[in-house]
Amino acid sequence: xxxxxxxxxxxxxxxxxxxxxxxxxxxxxxxxxxxxxxxxxxxxxxxxxxxxxxxxxxxxxxxxxxxxxxxxxxxxxxxxxxxxxxxxxxxxxxxxxxxxxxxxxxxxxxxxxxxxxxxxxxxxxxxxxxxxxxxxxxxxxxxxxxxxxxxxxxxxxxxxxxxxxxxxxxxxxxxxxxxxxxxxxxxxxxxxxxxxxxxxxxxxxxxxxxxxxxxxxxxxxxxxxxxxxxxxxxxxxxxxxxxxxxxxxxxxxxxxxxxxxxxxxxx
Length: 267
Known about the structure:
By secondary structure, the chain is an alpha+beta fold. It contains 6 helices and 12 strands.
């Protein structure tokens, strides 16, 4: 087994940092490489979580079993049926008070590689040694700015019905603007959900832009939900916040109208 440890001192409380890292529902808004996470099972402090992450030009996904130990200030996780080249992959986050107001955040990853191949172990270790410290640094930044970022988070959802089958609407959306893989990272959950996140070309007045399409069949019609969430940069203030925050409603309106117009023209 190979074990890698990384750590960072963060000027925030241990408890607040544990909750920040544990927040699978919202981390895709604030961590650039987090695309989506869904808790698919829960038993007390134990979760079964499906996660999608942006790794360079790729989108990777996996399922983990996760235990949140708030009393021990620790999050432990194990990958369920890890993808090649891993035979096993597990890890933990620990949060230890360090000084009057700080916390030592430590991650530990352990893994076994198929065939114990030395070249693969070296490559995987180098990849983690690059990526994990970047995540820790961003966690430290978020710990300072998370309250402000939440104030700068705006969501707009719009719904309408179109006359079409579920498969028709899903295929139209799957082949639409978000299919540009250089611009968007996506989670495709056929036949009724697409989640997406801008990965490049993000306007300068936005911190992040994420969205979803959710489809529900009602007889001969499909209800289409279009949702977009923008997070503004922490340095934005005053009138610019209100003005820019309104853009999310306009984007959702535009996205939905394009869908309605497309299927109205086919009717």
